[in-house]
Amino acid sequence: xxxxxxxxxxxxxxxxxxxxxxAGADLAGNNRLAYPADVKIIRVPCSxxxxxxxILRAFQRGADGVIICGCHPxxxxxxxxxxxxxxxxxLLFSMLDYLGIEKERxxxxxxxxxxxxKFAATMxxxxxxxxxxxxxxxxxxxxxxx
Amino acid sequence: xQRIGVFVCHCGTNIAGTVNVEAVSDALRxxxxxxxxxxxxxxxxxxxxxxxxxxxxxxxxxGIVVCSCSPRMxxxxxxxxxxxxxINPYMVEIANIREQCSWVHKDTLTGTEKAIxxxxxxxxxxxxxxxxxxxQTPVTKRALVIGGGIAGIQTALDxxxxxxxVDIVEKKPTIGGKxxxxxxxxxxxxxxxxILTPKxxxxxxxxxxxxxxxxxxTEVHGFVGNFDVTIKKKARYVREDICTGCGxxxxxxxxxxxxxxxxxxxxxxxxxxxxFAQAVPKxxxxxxxxxxxxxxxxxxxCSKVCTAGAIDxxxxxxxxxxxxGAIVVATGFNPIPMDKFxxxxxxxxxxxxxxLEFERLMNAAGPTGGKLLRPSxxxxxxxxxxxxxxxxxxxxxxxxxxxxxxxICCMYTAKHAMLTxxxxxDTEVYVFYIDVRTPGKNFDEFYRRxxxxxxxxxxxxxxxxxxxxxxxxxxxxxxxIENRQIHIDADLVVLAAAIEPDKSARPLATMxxxxxxxxxxxxxxxxxxxxxxxxxxxxxxxxxxQGPKDIPETVAQAGAAASKVxxxxxxxxxxxxxxxxxxxxMMCSGCSNxxxxxxxxxxxxxxxxxxxxxxxxxxxRVAQVNEAVCQGCGCCTVACxxxxxxxxxxxxxxxxxxxxxxxx
Amino acid sequence: xxxxxxDILVNKAKELxxxxxxxxVYGWKKGEFAYDVTPALxxxxxxxxxxxxxxxxxxxxxxxxxxxxKKAGGKILVFLKPCDTYxxxxxxxxxxxxxxxxxxxxxxxxGMLTGSALKDKVDSVLSVETEGDTVKVETLYDGVKTFPASxxxxxxxxxxxxxxxxxYDELIGEDGEVLDSGRFDExxxxxxxxxxxxxxxxxGELSRCIRCNACRDVCPACxxxxxxxxxxxxxxxxxxxxxxxxxxxxxxxxAFHVAGRCTDCGECSRVCPQHIPLHLLNRKFIKxxxxxxxxYQAGEVVGNRPPVVNYTKEDIEPSExxxxxx
Amino acid sequence: MTNTKRMKEDILRMSGVNPxxxxxxxxxxxxxxxxxxxxxxPHQFVSMVEEGRLEPLLASKSxxxxxxxxxxxxxxxxxxxxxxxxxxxxxxxERQKDGNHLTANDIPARIDDDMPQQAIVTAxxxxxx
Lengths: 146, 664, 326, 129
Prior knowledge:
The structure holds four protein chains of four kinds.
Chain A: E1 12-17, H1 21-30, E2 39-44, H2 52-60, E3 65-70, H3 81-98, E4 106-110, H4 116-133
Parallel strand pairs in A: 1-2, 1-3, 3-4
Helix pairs in contact in A: 1-4
Chain B: E1 4-9, H1 21-29, E2 34-40, H2 46-59, E3 63-68, H3 71-84, E4 92-96, H4 98-102, H5 108-127, E5 136-138, E6 143-146, H6 150-161, E7 166-169, E8 184-185, E9 190-191, H7 192-205, E10 209-212, E11 215-223, E12 226-233, H8 248-252, E13 258-259, E14 268-269, E15 272-273, E16 285-286, H9 292-296, H10 301-305, E17 318-324, E18 326-329, E19 333-335, E20 352-354, H11 355-362, E21 383-390, H12 409-423, E22 428-433, H13 443-452, E23 457-460, E24 463-469, E25 472-479, E26 484-490, E27 492-497, E28 499-501, H14 505-512, E29 539-541, H15 551-569, E30 573-575, E31 581-583, H16 593-597, E32 603-611, E33 617-625, H17 635-639, E34 645-647, H18 652-662
Parallel strand pairs in B: 1-2, 1-3, 3-4, 6-7, 6-18, 7-10, 18-29, 20-27, 21-22, 21-27, 22-23
Antiparallel strand pairs in B: 5-30, 8-9, 11-12, 12-17, 13-14, 15-16, 19-28, 24-25, 25-26, 31-34, 32-33
Chain D: H1 3-15, H2 27-31, H3 42-51, H4 55-59, H5 62-65, H6 71-75, H7 82-96, H8 107-110, H9 117-126
């Protein structure tokens, strides 16, 4: 990613579960609810498919923020996947914070298939937060930056 | 290396209006593995699909990337297209450049840039895709219903009606369950036996249905379509095939003082007994705990009086293993024990009874022949107090009560009060309630009739204390509306005990790997959309084992569960989801972490022999995934430290590749 | 310092070998120096001559049982300190050892000294002796020096979590109690820093990492058949850390993989040649799990379900979890 | 914060009771052995504290007619513990009485060898606002 642009744009990776959040993102599209193009969505069957290594890899390769979206607790298509996500991410985020990495760069949001507006609002808010933090310098592979 | 074709859709102006589709297809042509890239007005149209098919043939494509609308829209379409042109449908990936790009971004420059990145991610993924084939498993066309109450009976009848064989396993000597013990049913007041016993007879006579009464499920193996179930037929010491149910033995047995479970201990039965007149199967059963012959070999009266020669004192428990395609749980409920509720003096006075005991007292076949008489002295009671919510809605102490509303008590208490006043107009009937909950067809009308026509005293407030004094029960309660404390000298106090799932449900859930909530009710696959299925494929729920229910609801759910079973048994083969977890046995450490998080019980472990590089063999414990049961959530892949467990279609390396492509 | 002597242990080993209860013994052997005692397997009474026991026998031998207990032959005798028994239980829970093949003798522990702390204080050690709480060190150039034992104790012993053996077949001496240690104090201190200070702290620590993998290789929770970092197919393969990211990546992922399974035995920090306080990463996870999901001690009971592979419907949200320190 | 609101918070803090758990079943009052002597009954305490109607409670004799038999705590199906709430209202009332009967300065004069220190501490708490 080039950073020579006059305006800094963050790079956001969003992991969305197939059943709720990905559908929520589709609904945001159907309703033409705009959010920044900085957000790139990766589809996973369930938020519990997201390995902490995926998140670290995104940061390594230059992502400035990573957000994981899943079904609301209790609504998981696979009954319990997002409960595990909640535990894993609570622990991982707390660890990243402990290592001094800005806690605003990671987020978990529960977005249902009906919450297109929430999806767009969440992404707008997250982009704004991450943009305010600036580039991710604390968790990146220096070789990936030109 | 894959040979990938990229197909960018304009979707009219839906995509092309914001995204420079030409630039996208040009940019993606340069990606590794891409041998063909084009764009077209409507990729999903017949003409668009033909472009894909022709390109597959012409460029010998092995992978397809379609940059179009959401995969939730047309992934299936393009997979079919690919399959019809001879490549594996799972070699198709969709880059969502409509819902998640052109529709949400206004600027052509950023839209185009993002579309290219999304396309790149899809190409990176397809490069690592592998052809997937859904597994096929045959279906055993037989169902098992566990529990022979009204829920189990209705489910079995409905399944049998569709032509499939069904077995009912009932732990008691007869089917019928709780409904057989009821007197009248609300809100129509028809007699429970009159509507239930014909169904029991139907079950007995239906040649598709086998009844294993006095039996229990002891082991369950296998998975949807292919369960192996071990059933223990407890020794009843009477040969079912010979016994005619004449009842001669039950009259001659010298052991007379055994509390009769069917009448909740309010009268007695013999050591050899038939639970009630309309029992199905109507055969006698010997109670081994009380039979003299079985205990010390001294008696044998029943054997002498049995003209059919059905008595067999040497009978043993029998185990049989049967195959089933589907299992329906219908284990029902019980009232909770009342002995912990000291304040209501249930253990101190015989005249404090539960509602189920009241049902038996009012029933013509009950211990009093249908006359309402006090259990202590057989006198006719004049003042009756009904207490609602005993143990229900009770958050304070879990070992005593239940946090949930038991749902049926408001209605049956109204019924009891009404029937009492109807039969005995000389009585005064008080009902103490917290709320009267009557949602249901004709339910509130029924309750109002109890108040308005039958003059039942409904008092908002709870009974604080019942103390036996002489032959009276002193009831102290509050009347919240009049803000006073009431003292009533009652003759009979009836407690609407909370109901709880049958104790057999918890071990059964473990055997079935079906999940339960903290109250031991079975959980549904989805609380709204799949209310009669358990999260474990092939296991269905019927009746009160899933939550408190009245009879019409139970019957409705029983029918719904049956229709789900029929839908399953109709299939000759089950086609699985090919995107399932798959362990790399060479790397698996056998730690069981994946097994712990699997919501479907799809993971088991085996000890397997491996050849080592030095030609020795080593036995290691490794995970096995049952592909027919796995639903592909991928939870196990993260629980696996070594990365031995991976998810087909969403492999670790595929997701890494997507991340890398996006962050490039 | 130690209340049990070498002779007690050797006699016990000889007795069990003689009566056929076991056919081999895991213990310790003298290293090159007085302070680098190493775990070793003894297969006969004669070999036991080389058996040593003293204040530097800190190595947790439970991990050696992963391979040893799967081999043919009879039972293996192993002497376990209280903290080692937690590891053995955890390994049993994960089916990594065959508990039936192990004869565990619990031994009391008064804290084990570390060679690294000693080397920080003196050079050219010839011999070390302890008398009570005083450690007498004979050196080549500086003569005899004495230190209080507490100066040479690693953090895991200064903040010992338990003197209770959670599994054993036999016990030498009296069993102790689970202690109320201050093992999370250091973590709390870090939590109270600003993110910038924390980042600087960890940057300073982790940048020293030379990726020797000693922490992983000694860790009784790291027993995977093949580590993700060694596996080209995992997408995480990384033999040597090239920059600060990869050092962090390795240690975050390693700490995450052992989260809920780490018994806080402290071996990682003991063996780290760069003196990185790796236990502070593991303890952060333990502390978080305790506060978020209720007290949990890995290895306390066989068959326990670690919090990371469990859940309740009322769990804390990740956004709340990171806010907690504010 | 209004006075009532602060008083309510004090009561809830002192008692540790959450009156919102009450489902208004009245079992506490049905249980109460001294019901007729009480102007306000246990369930009314719970709902009046929740509604913030504290003045009538503070003025009521019921504060002293509660026997503290704890039957209502024992029987409450929701674990609301009305007796603790009544006790807290009573404490609040005590603490509001007049001014400070005992100030810190008064204490040294009252200390002698026979006086247990506990008694002084208790008295100081009881007789001081």
